[in-house]
Design goal:
Layout: H1 2-28, H2 33-55, H3 59-64, H4 67-86, H5 96-126, H6 138-161, H7 174-181
Length: 196
Amino acid sequence: MHALRSGGTWVLVAAAAGFVSAAVFTMILGLDRRTFVAAWSAVAAVLWAAYARQEQVRLRVQLARRLPSGIVIGSIAGAILVLSVLRQPASPAPTGSALALDLVWLGGVYGAVDALILSVLPVLALYGTRPGEPEPAPSQRIGRAAMALAGSALVTAAYHAGFREFQGPSAERAPSACWRICPAPHCSSEWCRGRR
């Protein structure tokens, strides 16, 4: 029960950090996208470091756990998301060095940071096994998995609620279209984020 309470606390902290960061960095400070990614990455690094230290998360252990099945499932989910995004109208794309920078910074760094805080942290906090904690019994896995997905959805929703595109009248279009295209809380396309 302690692990669940602790995990729930981390999910709420991640949700609050996501909402406040998005609101302050974009609506109050008006940061452009690239600068926002730098600021959000700093917040995410502090949050992840605090979580990993407090909960004794060993990254190598977590990465090695079920690696083959994780790669297969991640590849399938990624392919579905790519197909969903490719069906949308194209937005103006950068070229040359700007494209290379966007691929690394907005695609790689921003994608990894969002994945870490919006998906990995809540799922690990609510479902993952910590050192010294035995693997959950098969009968408990379904309930923990549902809680983990709900936790990820909560963090994702709170984070997106901090952006102007997901508030007021414009919110009627952006989130509903996003969730119809990629209903998993792990939606990582720019389109689903309101093209911030």
